Each structure stands twice: as structure tokens, then as C-alpha cells.
Amino acid sequence: MIAKIRIFLALGFVAAGSLVLVPLQILSMKTGWWPETFILKIWHRLIIRALGMRIHVKGALSDKRPLLVASNHISWTDIMVLGSMVDVKFIARADMEGWPLIGMLSKLQRTVFIERERKRSSGDQANEIASRMAKGDAMVLFAEGSTGDGNIVLPFKSTLFGAASMAISEGAAEQVFIQPVAIAYTRLHGVPLGRRHRPLAAWIGDEDLMPHLKVLLAEGALDVEVHFGEPIAFSKGSNRKETSKLMESQVRAMMQAALADPRPSR
């Protein structure tokens, strides 16, 4: 009963907040009166509060541009976590575009939707990402191409780094900075999550969104750590596969460090 009340109140909180924030975001996009990410950060923080999540940060988003952020991916909540803290735009899988509310808000923050199974469209998508980076947007790439279970980092797909190569080859930039970022869900109600229970936070494969949302709302009080690594310069002579492996190893090391010694809840 308590869980149902928590879910009802949290959804009402998000719905009420969205009724105010969505028109403001549309106004921002049309007028440019304030940065587009300003309202979005408030909306992401609203979602984080409704979910009862506590965020712990190590390091910071690089101020170097053009910037591609290479992160692991555990859940749809990763977007809320990162979006609540830093001024970034996202690269997301195409089916998210049709999701209730989240799909709409994704469009309102100019998310680039990619169809990873359609090779014919990959060039246009990479070109769009490259163009956005060249204009100064920090773009978040979930480089595994899928979501993990919260225990391990899946192999990074080097093809997803094609936007960095295209930005250089098209003359939009002489080099692109790529920054590794690790996300780890570490505690539930202050108790460290073990290997068996970490998948609670994970949203894997074709799992429906609403059942997972209800589980998170019912549980609440999740701690998540975000570790920012040092950016590297990717230039014309850089090897995309080697860069992908380097980012993967750095993200894996940061994630394992967070899981091995999680920060205390506050």
C-alpha cells in the first residue's frame, strides 16, 4: 500500500512539474532567451527527486570543445542522472523517440536519434552528431550500444565513434575531445548493492518502461555515482578502434572502483 501511494505521489509530482516546464522549454527553443539545457536540468532533477535517487560525482565535465562523452549505459535513468548535473545533449536509440513523455522531452532537448541496425542512415546520423559537436554541444554517447546489468561494462562499439572521425574529415574541427564517464548504481536505502541486486536499477533490452519505472518508484533511495575521466584528443591520425578500447578500459576501471568502494549515502 505504501509503495502504491509513493508511486502515485511521485507520478503526480512529475506530471505537475512537466505541465510548467514543457511550455517553458518550447519557449526557450523558439526564442533563445536562456540556454536550452537550463529548463531541462530542472526537469531531470525533478525526475531524480521523484525516483528518490542520490547522485555522487567524482571529477567534472570537460570544458574542452568539440566534446564527445563516452559513457557506459545501465538504464534510461542514466539520461536523467547526467542531464540533471551538466549541460549535455544525448545520442539515443531511435525507438525512444516514441516513448510517452520521455520521447517528447528528448525531442525538446534536441536528442539525436540513431537507428543502429540501418547502415544506410548511419552516415547522416554521424554527420548530425559531428555538426552538433562543432557548434559547441557536448554530446553523450552510450558507447556499448546497449544497456548492461550494472555489474559489468559491455564492449564499446568503435563504429559509434564515427561522428568524431567525420567532424574532422569534414573540416568541422581539427580535433575532437573524447571524455570517458562511468555510471554505477551503488546503494539501496544506504546498503551497498551486491552483484545479485544491482540489476534492480538496470533497464535491459526490450523491457517495458512502465513496469521498470514502477519498480524504481516503489523502491526509491538509490545511490548512483558518476565518475568523469580525463578527456583525450582525437585527431586525423587517431585510430578509432584503439580509442574505443581505451575509453572502454577507462570506463570499466572507474565503474569497478565505484562498485568496490561506494561512497556513503547522504
UniProtKB/TrEMBL annotation:
Task: Quote the InterPro entries the UniProt record gives.
Answer: Plipid/glycerol_acylTrfase
A Gene Ontology cellular component where this protein is annotated is: membrane
Provide this UniProt record's keywords sorted from A to Z.
Answer: Acyltransferase, Lipid metabolism, Membrane, Transferase, Transmembrane, Transmembrane helix
Q: Which CDD domains match?
A: LPLAT_AGPAT-like (cd07989)
Q: Where in the cell is it found?
A: Membrane
SMART domains attached to this UniProt entry: PlsC (SM00563)
Q: Which molecular function GO terms apply here?
A: 1-acylglycerol-3-phosphate O-acyltransferase activity
User: Is Protein biosynthesis among this UniProt entry's keywords?
Assistant: no
Q: Main EC class of this protein?
A: transferase
Q: Which GO terms describe its biological process?
A: lipid metabolic process
Query: Chief subcellular site?
Result: membrane
Cite the EC number: 2.3.1.51
Q: Where are the transmembrane segments?
A: 7-26
Q: Which residues form the Phospholipid/glycerol acyltransferase domain?
A: 67-186
**Protein name listed in UniProt:** 1-acyl-sn-glycerol-3-phosphate acyltransferase
